[in-house]
Amino acid sequence: MANIFKFNGFRPVVHESAFIHPNACVTGNVIIGKDVYVGPGAALRGDWGQIIIEDGCNIQENCTIHMFPGTTVLLKKSAHIGHGAIIHGATIGENVLVGMNSVVMDEANVGAGSVIGALCFVPAKMNIPERSVLVGNPAKIVKEVSDEMLDWKTKGTQLYQSLPQEMRDYWEPCEPLREVETNRPTQEKMFETWERIKSKQD
User: Fold this and answer.
1) pLDDT digits (tens, 9 = 90+) for 143-159
2) How far is Cα 170 from Cα 45, in angstroms, rounded to an integer?
């Protein structure tokens, strides 16, 4: 069971189709939509304000989502928050990719379809137009997101949108093996979902 905690009268709201890893922590005024994946080590702390995670988002391992008092963090539909990223009081637009270990600060507004590179620092109140590519510390817009890049991002997010159900179907605690078994599944099996998603788009 996930670590979900009521705080100061606020009980998190989590859609039944979402998957919250037991090693994630969700506290207080947090609303999580359909087909959302929240990975191990992620912390969504709605103690001083509100966190809204719209349908189809994924929040990967060791991400932190928080805010200054009285504010709201909003992740719009299909936002993709990479491993170790921090979202603090910002609005992340629809179908945005936030790269690994990036930081997006208070009142920043990331336009739909944008890509924030790994290790990027987006300063407070930065207003990012739709389909922008950002890199650096502080973040700078370096180009527009191409149709090809947006398609790649969308397919990757669709893979994560299928993960909550796959976790319910196949994930379970276990004891480790002490040696590799002869009938161990092949890598090809792991890519069946990815191939299925790609074939739907092509």
Assistant:
1) 999 999 999 999 999 99
2) 28
